[in-house]
Amino acid sequence: MDYKTISKLMFSGLVTGALIACSAELPEKQTVSGSGDQDYLEISFGEGPNQGVYRYFPGESPTAGVSLSYSKPNDVSFFAAADIKSSQGELQISSVRRFTQGPLELGDNSATTWLAHKPDTKSNKPMDCGRVEMRDLNNTQPYQVVYGTYLDCGATQITRLDDWQTDADGQYRRVEGRYEDRVRLQIAMDDAPFKTIDTTMVVAFSVLQRKK
């Protein structure tokens, strides 16, 4: 059974809206308003039915764009995106989230949990450092929903960290990076029980981080 990925990603709650993915030729990057660079998200799956590389760009929705926020009280950086689309396809990713500890710096940034209370490290359960969720909103696929859990929660590597600049909305800077993780996909099929697949997931991104 072949799956292609598609995506929409959320920030502070699920953002509804369909995103379209493509695993063939990558479309030309789009320019983000107010920036000379482009926001994009690239996801690749190493094995399993989603195997391939997929690149997404902001759509026309007011909520479109990839984002990176920082919560000082919680000391957590939160990577997410909304209304990211490519040129073709009908599969949809409802959300992709990733959390890192503390202010970002060049190089490796440790993963952290989004939970208010960190899990007991003696339980041998993986840290909940983010999630992946895919839904068949248009009933075009042989599954209803796919839940993905990161298994290793390794570091997020930041390769670009610009100086802060200021516009009418506050301070911003461009951040680029990537992370790689083993992810466990639990698939609720239309006509069968849950199916579980372990695969490698690599996410690369170029985003604007903002602080007010």
Automatic annotation (TrEMBL):
Q: Which PROSITE patterns does the entry mention?
A: PROKAR_LIPOPROTEIN (PS51257)
Protein name in the entry:
Lipoprotein
